[in-house]
Each structure stands twice: as C-alpha cells, then as structure tokens.
Design brief:
nine-stranded mixed beta sheet; Alkaline Phosphatase, subunit A; 536 residues; alpha/beta; disordered N terminus; 18% strand
C-alpha cells in the first residue's frame, strides 16, 4: 500500500455526526448563482447600450438592483479572478502577474525569459471562499473556468468542470452556490468567431476616439457586440433552467463581467473602461428595478456571499460585504486596481479612484504605454492600429497609447473626460484631489503590502525555499480514538479533504468524525501554491 494514498481501513462503529452542527439547517441557506461573462464593459441596454440588443439581461435588470460603480481589481482576468475567489487584493497575496499557471494556449513566448509557470503561494490563512460555503453545507459548482493564478485545492469545489451544475447535487434539498463562466465575449472570440454572421450592422456602432473610424474598427466592434448578443441568449438558458427547476424566484442571482472590454487600449489597462463592469443582483429581499451607486470592488464579492449565507467573514479577507447580515457600516470610498506583468511584458501601475477621479501611479515610467503582447496581435484591430501608426495614419488622440514613456502620476476626471485623455496631475486646480488620491494609494499600499515591488523570479524562489519546484504539502496524520477519526497536517494553511469513495467529491475536513468498521477513507491535503500531498 502506497503511503501517499493515505488509505485508512477503520474498525469502529459507524455513526457519522454532522461536521457542521454550528450552522443553521441547510434548508435555511439561500441558493446563489453567479453568471460571469468575460471581457465586457457595461454593454447592456439597462446601462445605456443602444446597438447591441440584450433583452434577457435587460429583463433581469428590471428584477434586480443595477450597480453602476462596480470595478475589477485589474484590467485582465486571472489577477481579478484571484481577488474574487479569495477576497484579497492580488498584489497583497502574490497573484498579480498575468499569468502564472501555464496552459496549452500559453507558449513559452508568453513568459519572460527564465520564468516558468508556477502556482502562486498565497498567505497560509487565505482560502478559496467556496470552501467556507461547503463547510456550511453548500454544494458548490464551477462551470468551468478557474484561472485564479493558483491551482485550487480539491476542497474548493464539489465540481469544477464543463459539466458542473447545481442539478448534479445528490441531495436536491441541499443549498447550492453555482458559477457559470460564459467565454463568448472574451477577447479571443473576436477572431475565433469572425466567420459567424454579424448581428450588428458595423455602420451603426460607436467608434471611440482612440480608434480610427474605418471599416476594420467598425467590423471588430460589431463582431464584439454581436458576441454580446449571443452571450445574452446564453444567460437566458441558465435562467430558464432555474425556472424549470422551480428555483428562480428564491435564488440570489449575480450577473457581472470579469473586467472591461477585451479590445485594444481597454483590456489590461487601469482606465475605468478597463475596470468598470456591469453588476446585476436579483434576490427576493432586494428592491426590483433599482439602481445603487455605491463603489464596489471585486474583493467585496467573497465577503458578501458569506454574509448572505450567514457565514462569519474570515479576518483574512480584505474586502467588505455590501449585502447580507454582515454588511459594512461604512460604504467604500475608493476602489483600487493594479497592472503588473502581462504575459511576457513587465510593467507596474497602480490606481485608486473615488468613482469620478482616477489616479494612476506609474512605477516604471521608463516603460512605454503600449507593449507588444503576442496574444493581442491576433486581433485585426490591433494589427490595423500598428500599421496606421507606422504609416502616420493616427491622430493625436490615437497616438496617446504609443507614447514611448510615462509620467510618474496621472489624474483623470472621468465625468468630464470619459476616455481619460487629459492628465490633470500638473493642473494646480486639481492639486488637492491629486494629493488626496496619492495619499490614499500610499495608505492602501502600507495597509495591504504590494508584492509587485519584488522581482518575480526572486518572489517564487522565496516561496519555494530556493528549490526548483513548489514544495509538497505534508502527508496528513490520521488518528483513531474512541471510534473518531482525527486528521491533521503539519503544513500551515493546508486544507484537508477526505472521502470514502474515489468517485465522490472530496469533503472538507473540519473536526473529528465517526466511521464504520472496514471503511476505506482517502485523505489529501494542500496548501495553495504547494503540491498536494495526494492527487487523483
């Protein structure tokens, strides 16, 4: 018998006691669904979109609270998803560089020389928040994208696959938290779906002034907005499933995007157009068809879900709940975001905004605004911009992105300058606002830390203790006393999972439990960023 399988054959009396006795009965816990689209600013009719038709989401908005000031923590997916799943700023837990985990779609040219893919080693007290839901009795599913900058431990989800669904829970009375990721609006779908019929007439689209108003810009924008319309129908399919199951009216439903549009000079940037997202929340206790203008950050989502479920918010979470029994007494005054390495290209920019004024601190002013990212070059709009630049075909506003270096500080009034063209940092009329947001940025950095200041290769070496690969989580120790099974792990911060059938989902171990004579129990443990003690 191999030791790392941790197969334990127990001889004791069977009487499984509840691991979750301190939590209210499962029937009192609300069902929660997240529908997450990708790479989309608020292109919904309810937010003022006039070209793309989104009837499903517009109807949802009539049944929901529509939040007007929701922001991601980065203008790109993986760092923002890291903040979503942990309730922590990616810069404080080391998941800030885009991206860290290698994929089949990520060739070596997408990484700097000397850097190999790795799973971020986040602080030992930080968990994926669905783990807390599972401990409380939830069935948690993710369909299907994770992209957290680290490998999620088996304790994070009951299911995480393209087949994951609340309908798969063995006990249909069990409350569920289900995430559905819709990739239809992702940056890549602009070229991947290029042969599909357009649902939007290119002549009708609005071309922002940072693009030339030509046939290529119009076609790409029309393609993107057509994808938005397809995504809207996909949302309708999930909503219909909830209705078919008799769950729609009493389910808390979130719809949002993982960051702003996946188009050039939008995605990866810290302008509001790269960070601001649509957010609709429908719940039986929320007023229908209303608007909420409070500032909300992605780090607030995890705490809010726990608050809605009546689960104590861990002190390790840096966000604050904006819903539920633990809603913060004071509304958020600022949102914060960060840009670090994007694929092969390093940069370091931080932003803080009060919802109107957006402050940017450029820590590498010697870097150009535009960086040559291989993945983005697949977009025909990007190729067109570069060709026009070479031929002198871009105007002054369109050339702003191609400046060879940056100033240290930037300040934009997004109300009067929605495209953030005019830097007010040197304007004496805005000196007090500049000082306010600069001070706030520095206070945020002091409070939460910023690992972006550390060389990435050195950061990984420190995590790995100078070794060439991630450390392995210690093999859990198992004790049997008085018929009770006790499991522990010497690796600080490790989550422990166990199961009696290799076909079952791993359960989260929290306290000793009773088992039956001759029962096989499989155990694994993993600290996030470490190798699991046992993987199957």
């Amino acid at each position: 018998m191999k030791r790392n399988t941790l197969l334990l054959i127990l001889c004791c009396f069977f009487s499984f006691s509840s691991l979750f006795a301190q939590v209210e009965p499962a029937t009192t816990l609300p069902n929660i669904v997240w529908i997450v689209c990708e790479d989309m600013s608020p292109h919904l009719g309810s937010y003022g979109e006039k070209v793309a038709k989104t009837p499903i989401l517009d109807q949802l908005a009539k049944e929901s609270v529509r939040y007007t000031q929701a922001y991601s923590t980065a203008g790109v997916c993986a760092p923002s998803r890291s903040a979503l799943i942990t309730g922590n700023y990616q810069t404080s837990i080391g998941s800030h560089n885009m991206r860290t985990l290698g994929t089949s779609a990520s060739p070596s040219s997408d990484y700097p020389i000397g850097l190999k893919p790795y799973s971020t080693v986040i602080p030992e007290g930080v968990k994926c928040f669905p783990e807390y839901l599972r401990i409380a009795g939830y069935y948690c599913t993710n369909n299907a994208k994770e992209d957290y900058q680290f490998e999620a431990p088996v304790t994070a989800w009951d299911e995480s696959s393209k087949k994951a669904h609340w309908r798969n829970r063995p006990d249909k009375t069990k409350p569920f938290f289900s995430v559905f990721n819709l990739e239809t609006t992702h940056e890549s779908q602009v070229w991947a779906r290029d042969k599909e019929p357009l649902l939007v007439d290119p002549k009708t689209v609005e071309v922002p002034p940072y693009y030339p108003d030509d046939s290529i810009s119009r076609h790409v924008i029309a393609r993107f907005l057509s994808n938005v319309m397809v995504m809207d129908k996909q949302v309708g399919e999930i909503i219909q499933q909830l209705k078919d199951d008799g769950l729609y009216n009493n389910t808390i439903l979130f719809f949002y995007s993982d960051h702003g549009d996946g188009l050039p000079f939008v995605k990866r940037e810290l302008h509001h157009r790269g960070l601001k997202v649509p957010l609709l929340i429908k719940a039986p206790f929320l007023p229908k068809g209303t608007t909420d203008d409070q500032l909300i950050s992605f780090v607030d989502f995890g705490p809010s879900i726990l608050s809605l479920a009546g689960i104590p918010i861990p002190k390790t979470m840096q966000g604050q709940a904006f819903l539920g029994t633990q809603e913060a007494e004071t509304k958020r005054k600022y949102i914060y975001a960060a840009r670090d390495r994007m694929d092969s290209e390093y940069d370091r920019v931080r932003s803080v905004s009060d919802g109107r004024f957006n402050y940017l601190r450029n820590y590498m002013p010697e870097k150009p605004y535009y960086q040559n990212i291989n993945y983005r070059l697949k977009n025909p709009l990007m190729s067109n911009l570069l060709a026009l630049k070479k031929d002198g075909g871009l105007n002054q506003e369109q050339l702003l992105w191609f400046r060879p270096n940056k100033v240290k500080e930037e300040l934009f009034d997004t109300q009067n300058d929605p495209y953030e063209f005019e830097n007010l940092a040197s304007n004496p009329e805005y000196a007090s606002k500049l000082a306010e947001l600069r001070e706030e940025h520095e206070a945020w950095t002091k409070q939460f830390g910023d690992l972006g200041a550390v060389n990435e290769i050195e950061l990984v070496k420190n995590w790995w203790g100078g070794q060439t690969e991630a450390p392995k989580t210690a093999v859990p120790e198992i004790r049997l006393e008085g018929g009770y099974v006790t499991i522990s792990c010497q690796t600080a911060g490790a989550s422990i999972g166990y199961r009696t059938d290799m076909q079952q989902a791993w359960k989260v171990y929290t306290e000793p439990f009773l088992a039956t004579p001759g029962e096989k129990i499989f155990v694994t443990a993993q600290r996030i960023g470490y190798q699991a003690s046992f993987k199957n």
